[in-house]
Amino acid sequence: MTATTGATQSAHPERPGRSDGVCNEFTVFTKIKPGHADALREDLATLADAADDEKVHAAVRQIGTLHDARHVIFDNDTRFMFASVFDGSWDTYIDDFAQTVVGARFDKVFSHSEGFPGVKDPGVKDWFVAHQEPAGVFVSAYPDLTVQQIYKDQRVDDAFQEVLDTPEFRAALENPANAELVATPAFQKLLEEASA
User: Fold this and answer.
1) Whether residues 162 and 80 fall in one domain
2) What's the CA gap between 7 and 25, in Å, rounded?
3) Where do the segments described as Disordered lie (predicted)?
């Protein structure tokens, strides 16, 4: 599959952005208010320091659809870019930010952009649409996995790894009564993947 064949236009033609499987891209370009670049840079540094903050990760988990996000100041401190990848509907994605601690941080960062009305303002979606630019090409490494599926896969893997480390599991592998199951290609593949 080439990059361009996997990416399609959004299911909502009024909402810019491309999708690849369940993943959607969101990229916004704004003008930084004159004299605000240093304050924006400070707010982004605070945001970066808070990235390890449990409240931020809890809010991202609460939103449950955000794969990643990044903020960039460019064009000699005159422009700002926010880009992210998310699952589901564009409208729900924007709505979800206003419901968590992420919304307040979003407001603080975008307050340095010209005309930003605030994440809870009824006109914020129109503002984002006016500043959003769809990617020319968008490809996801895992187009069929939502954030929730990735979280589940991680929980299952953690639990499975915990089982693999028990003496009881080793004993079960060595028990002749289980030899037929252990010899199956599926079980061997499972063990091989678990040890990779």
Assistant:
1) no
2) 10
3) 1-20
